[in-house]
Amino acid sequence: MKQELAFLLFICTVTLGGCAIEPWVKPYERANLADPIMSFNRDPVSASYIHHVYDSREGARGAGIATGGGCGCN
Amino acid sequence: MKFTIWRFFPVLLLLFATLELQAAVLPEERFDLLYHKYDGGGVTIDGPSFLVRKNLGDSVSVGLNHYVDNVTSASIDVEVSGASEYTEERTENSISVDFLRQKTTMSAAYTVSDENDFDANTLSLGISQDMFGDLTTVSMSFAIGDNTVGLNLDGSEDFQEDTKVRSYRLGVSQVLTKNMVMAFTFETITDDGYLNNPYRSVRYCNDPACTGFSFQQEVYPETRTSTAMALRVNYFLQQRAAIYAGIRVFEDTWDIDATTYEVGYTLPYQDEWIFEASFRFHDQTKAEFYSDLFPSVNAQNYLARDKELSTFTSTTLGFGASYEFGRSWSQIERGSLNLQMDWIDFDYDDFRDLTASGPVGGEPLYSFDATVTRLFASIWF
Q1: What value of ipTM does the predicted structure carry?
Q2: From the CA of B9, how many Å to the nearest CA of chain A?
């Protein structure tokens, strides 16, 4: 029973927590973020190539700086 | 009463329903045709690459990429080994699929790379989720690679070794203000198998006084695990311009520590032009089993004299120009012509130039410059 209560409390906390997060940048305020010059990966073929150049000539690898998952601005 | 998660299925449905506020989007439909060239340190590599990305319906995007390296090399490693200039070709083909479901994008990609002494096959799977009013995107990916290493020398036709590579990546991008967005990436990569370069050798002293030197083949460990973390921030300036700054820290089980810094500035001019300038600085320490000159033959279990594993810095200045066209064309959404050039300066702290004269172990330190060019056209449709 304690397990059930704990799980329910977890679900409620996550759900209510989600409700409490009010996006502080509204969709209509994201024009600048949606501008192509703000993209993390504006030219994917060129970016992939320059990463390959560095990976081949340096000891470090991974987590290429110029990557990102998007900006939620579409 | 037995605890079972299925009793809470309606609650879970409600939870995921609250996350469904607005759909994410598929990658842009585009075609890119690129010519690339690397020229430096006695090595010239050039060739074409193209990318096609097309949507199939509202929820599936398919991408195809073809890439070619034409290599002509008379690098310092080739010169020191006594070999003559060689040429070879590497081709790489990949297919990727993105599947969009509400705010979740699932991705899969398969890449095949072929050259006369190295074959690589890589499968990657990923998932990303927009959340918190689309201010946050969390992504995870996993890649598994199987490589086959060969040796393109007379009498070595039977040489074949394998390497397995695993990559685990976590990314978070976050909108901070209406003008600023950041991305954090964590990636760990493990290698298992034959990690040597079969063509490379180390040098060692012939006698205790080191009056001369000889060469023996490199010996690398058969495992390597590396961890890299990167943070980048993009900021939108007034009058439509943007700056970015990024840092990556790296370490691995071979004792290499590296830090890489990047800054850049993007400036549109009128409606058609975009100009870019960037600066990158990379600083790394050597692998623990690296040495420019070992005291004797078989001086230790593992031996390397690969300059990529030495202590060095690289400094890059980059410039780019992009011209956009076709906004008013009916056949396409828009297109762009682009030229990007980078000048890279490599300065080695403990890798010596054996093509120059000097006492054993006292030859001048090696350094070289490279020019990297990308000329490409992009069309969005």
Answers
A1: 0.89
A2: 11
